Write the structure tokens for this entry.
Amino acid sequence: MEIKTNKIDSANAEIQATISMDEVNTNLDKIAKQLAKTANVQGFRKGKVPISIIKKQYGDKLVQDAESESLRDVLSAGLAELNISNDSLIGEPTIAKFDKSDDKIEVEVKVAMRPEIDLSAVDSLVPDFTKPEVSDEDVAKRIKEIAEQQAPLVDIKRNRMMKLGDTAVIDFDGFIDGEAFEGGKGEGFALKLGSGQFIPGFEDQLVGIKRDEEVTVNVTFPAEYGASQLAGKEAEFKVKVNQIQVKEEVEINDDLAKKLLPGDETADVEKLTQQVKIQMQGESLGKLYNDELKPELLNKLVSEISFALPEFVVEQEIDMAVNKKAGSMSEEEIQELRDNADKLTELRETFRQDAEESVRATFIIDALAQEKGVKVEEQELMQTIYYEAMQTGQDPQKTYEQYKEAGYIPAIQMSMVEDKVLSALLNAKLEA
């Protein structure tokens, strides 16, 4: 066996070899002898089957196994010469060339390794920022909003005209082209004006209406409305206002604080104010992190930390981008790509930069996660998916199973790891 190796960079290497047919035949004989010990062949006792019979019966399969064994020998010898351990490999080696002739096989194997990444400059890349301040006025406003949410709705005493923010208790009948339609009727429905619960324009037409008045509301269902039979249709609603309700005034005192901080017998307005301020500071900081700092930090890490990328990983990322693009292409456009290799290559190259940046980001985050011991356990992952499913009214268990079946779980887990890593870097900067 003749072997030539080339370590292209820290992430890619290639192994070229010439395998003589004598080596393949030696492997074939060895495999056949092993098989002869266990094979069941009619007319022969187990373990007594002649090698010639084994070769005849298993012919092509033995050849394939022998060639595979030779390829494994090539890979093992090549990695040893390159001083590359199996643990450092990423993915399966790629057979780039397999030319078979009567007396030899010429092969070329490409291997990819986990990139070597220098993280020494990471801290200097974290952007400077200051912790957002929350004013006493903002805290007081938030407490008032919370108090109002706790307050019950009460009927107004004076029969005034309605305004945005009022809750109208209404009966309504809907018609399209003079005909009532399914779902267009309701009685005693509590509608907060300005909430956006109803079709656009419906709530606005109730502003200025008084209790016990009847009004005709004309609206047009949105083109993207969920019920296709109603989408884009003009409708008329007969509406009667039965009651007008507002939130009852709630006094902000120690009793309210005890209600909002259950289990804390020492709760008072001062402690409630402190808790709300801490919560608002966390919200402001989280918004700053997610909207500005995390994207900025990730972009800096990707642009400033340079290292070799495994070629096949980049190509896989390009493959996914091309497949996604193909989903929005016409059959004629897809056929053109099939018929024109240059055009396909041109299309693939349009995705290369984004693919390289995505792969670079993944490896950087992975390296930082290992360095900082950041993990996302399955329980935490499930809790996150369950919570998001419940927020959107979906079945949590069913959602998790669907994600698992579709292969989304690793991507979600990686996204959570990325979030934790970037947060850790920003928190360290904040505390420094």
